[in-house]
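Problem 12. The chain below contains 168 residues. Write out its predicted structure in token notation.
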Amino acid sequence: MVSRSTLEWRRRFPTETTRQAADKNLRLELILADGSTYPHEGTFYFADRQVNESTGAIRIAGLFANPANILRPGGYGKVRAVIRTQQGALLVPQRAVSELQGGYQVAVVDSENKVSIRAVQAGDRVGNQWVIAEGLKPGEHVIAEGVQKVRPGMQVNPKPFAAEAQGR
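Solution.
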């Protein structure tokens, strides 16, 4: 099975020439084992043709400068790349989104501080937040703490959400 992001990449760059040009412009970030970000940006080198059947992943190689000799053979880390920028994306804390029978929902607080449960279409994850593609409008308030305790029509006393250190 091919990942959603791989399919999207292929649709956006349908020919070998456009894909090669896009691949050249990819900039990679390396997240080290301790969670810190490696200070040098990497570049895309190649993608393996074979999909790992157990994980659905494709092996991708990137090149990173290593002037301080921090990177060692056999070391582990995570690599991320910006493959798309979505202007005006609506982001909500991941903890505010509940999954139920393959769908997603959020608890919304209206102007009278009453709760309603609303189905949403969740998109990509960005750190500890989710992009909400449909079902929520900018400026609407969602419940991020105590979601399990609220019911539709319940009156609440909302307080601003204080997120822990924001991941990327």
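Discussion. The domain at 4-81 is CATH 2.40.30.170 (Elongation Factor Tu (Ef-tu); domain 3). Students who got a different answer should revisit the alignment rule from Section 12.3.
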